[in-house]
Amino acid sequence: MKELSNISLKPYNTFGIDAKARCLAEYESVEELQHLLQKYRDSRKLHIGGGSNLLFLNDFDGVILHSAILGVEVVEETDKDVVVKVGSGMVWDDLVAESIEHGWYGLENLSLIPGEVGASAVQNIGAYGAEAKDFIVSVELVDMANGECLKMKNEECEYAYRYSIFKSDALIGRYAVTHVCYRLSKVFVPHLEYGGLKKAVEACGIALDELTASRLRDIIIGTRNGKLPDPKVLGNAGSFFMNPIVDRVKFESLLAEYPGMPHYEVDDDRVKIPAGWLIEQSGWKGRRLGNAGVYEKQALVLVNHGGASGQDIVRLCETVRSDVSDKFGIDIHPEVNFIE
Ligand SMILES: Cc1cc2nc3c(=O)[nH]c(=O)nc-3n(C[C@H](O)[C@H](O)[C@H](O)COP(=O)(O)OP(=O)(O)OC[C@H]3O[C@@H](n4cnc5c(N)ncnc54)[C@H](O)[C@@H]3O)c2cc1C
To answer: Same structural domain for residues 208 and 269?
Structure first.
């Protein structure tokens, strides 16, 4: 167990915001967490993972909790698949790498997403057509109000695009995720339908029937590294905005005006439009407002050019939102968690 007082949160959020916290407490077991919850029962609490989807707007007058529960344990196994129980403090990408090494497949498309296992179940992380919810069997939790343990099955977590019940108004901040169970396949089936993956594989001269999970992972890592800023170099939290979903009438009218508009069918009535394209068309790609800016290679990413405060990022966010709304009549919403 580790407890630090009056610390800067700069190393604990990938935006590099220099907010302060009264205390940061890290636990290595459920029992240690329960002890901390009892000790800090009257304090405001926030559970973080790797801090890669957080924006601190102010100093945090309370206790920041962090899981250092590690380990991957096989809890079920058949000829076809395994169920592994993973500690919430494990770095997500280490799990992806380790599972491929063991011959457990499915997570390859989620390679190199920053953050930890606990947050994968809160955020329902996704990339290249895969989402954490496709693999999550159950989530083990501790109620931060009373220290009680509970387990929720996938169906109870209400997963949707970058959403879970843990982000709902009723439950946000209530539970600490201590373990997540994932079902992984022993058979590798590549999913190359999204984000130009098939082309990227072909460009490497690999025949589809020779593609391995490990090779696919390398290709995804290479592609991601080319597109997204490294938070160690340029503070950011990945995609800042969610891609808006509009009704078909709105979509048709926009398409008539912007025939090249990229889009993805959601269902008969709805279409998803990339927020990055809307921001770029609004003239924001590569622009900055003080020390906060829109990334020059991908307009969906807001960056800290150095010394930006949480409020600076919010100011940029609101200006971009307002310009997108004026131009397209679409309200885009942040994906990043704002911490007041
Ligand atoms: C460069 C970059 C690229 C990214 N690319 C992607 C991408 O492709 N796809 C994608 O989905 N996301 C992406 N993200 C966003 C981010 O990686 C994910 O949202 C990730 O799940 C956040 O994990 P974290 O451990 O850093 O969580 P944090 O940012 O610390 O926390 C996120 C939320 O989860 C809660 N939380 C975290 N851990 C726990 C826990 N153990 N118990 C209870 N609550 C908890 C926090 O309270 C907060 O609400 C990217 C971010 C960056 C910086």
So the answer is: no
Q: What is the pLDDT of residues 140-156, one digit of tens each?
A: 999 999 999 999 999 99
Query: How does residue 196 score in pLDDT terms, banded at 50, 70 and 90?
Result: confident
Residues 54 and 104 in one domain: no
118 and 169, same domain (yes or no): yes
Please tell me the distance between residue 51's alpha carbon and the centre of ligand 1 in angstroms. Answer: 7
Which residue's CA lies nearest to atom 4 of ligand 1? 238
Give catalytic status of residue 322 as yes or no.
no
Please list the residues that pair with 77 across neighbouring strands: 82
**Domains in the chain, number:** 3
Phi and psi at 207, nearest 5°, equal -70, 145
Q: Which of 99, 120, 239, 309 is catalytic?
A: 239
Mutate to test the pocket of ligand 1, among 44, 56, 122 (most ligand atoms within 8 A of CB): 122
Give residue-wise pLDDT tens across range 71-120.
999 999 999 999 999 999 999 999 999 999 999 999 999 999 999 999 99
Give the pLDDT band of residue 130 (cuts 50, 70, 90): very high
Q: Assess whether 186 and 86 both reside in one domain.
A: yes
Q: Any residues with Cβ below 6 Å from ligand 1, and which?
A: 14, 47-54, 67, 88, 113-116, 118-120, 122-123, 125-127, 175-177, 228, 231, 236-238, 337
Tell me: the pLDDT tens digits for 243-254? 999 999 999 999
What is d(CA 8, CA 116) in angstroms, rounded to the nearest whole number? 20
138 and 97 share one domain = yes
Q: Are residues 332 and 256 in the same domain?
A: yes
CA dihedral 274, 275, 280, 282 (to 10 degrees): 120
> Domain end: 178, 193, 227, which one?
227
Q: Which tokens hold the place of 120?
A: 């994968």
Q: Are residues 206 and 241 in the same domain?
A: no
Is the pLDDT confidence value at 195 over 80?
Answer: no
Contact at 8 Å (CB) between 229 and 306?
no
